[in-house]
Design brief:
Number of strands: 0
Largest sheet: none
Number of helices: 3
Strand content: under 5%
């Protein structure tokens, strides 16, 4: 078997394994975060979480597939390690950027929801509260 093919097989196995691991980690830990962002709506949080995971898989596995080809032929064992370190390193960077992008967007959504909750008046507009005794005397 050609060393280039061996490098491809190792690259695919490691990259797909890393993508699955990161997606599962993000899915299980992100569910709680999404439930908070969506004001406790568990069903909607699960649906959004599943859609995010599917999108994560599509983008990352698509990148892994596109980044598979290499113009150089690997002639020795050192070349296998060099090619793998470059390819897997780039995949790890892409996974990290995707993760940070997801966290950034979800945090912005969460912050907006917190701001909206804080803007509610402490008393409903149609109610009236009598001033406390001695509040106006100075």
């Amino acid at each position: 078997m050609d060393r280039t093919v061996i490098a491809y097989v190792i690259y695919l196995a490691v990259s797909i394994g890393l993508t699955v691991w990161v997606a599962r980690t993000l899915s299980s830990n992100g569910r709680v975060f999404l439930a908070d962002v969506l004001h406790g709506n568990e069903k909607l949080a699960d649906a959004v979480n599943h859609l995010l995971v599917v999108g994560f898989y599509l983008v990352n596995l698509g990148f892994v597939a596109l980044y598979l080809s290499d113009d150089d032929t690997i002639t020795d064992t050192r070349g296998v390690f060099e090619a793998l370190s470059t390819k897997i390193g780039v995949v790890l960077l892409v996974l990290g950027v995707m993760h940070l992008g997801n966290v950034y967007v979800l945090n912005r959504i969460r912050r907006r929801g917190v701001m909206e909750r804080e803007q509610l008046p402490p008393v409903a507009p149609q109610d009236w509260v009598a001033p406390a005794a001695g509040a106006g005397a100075a």
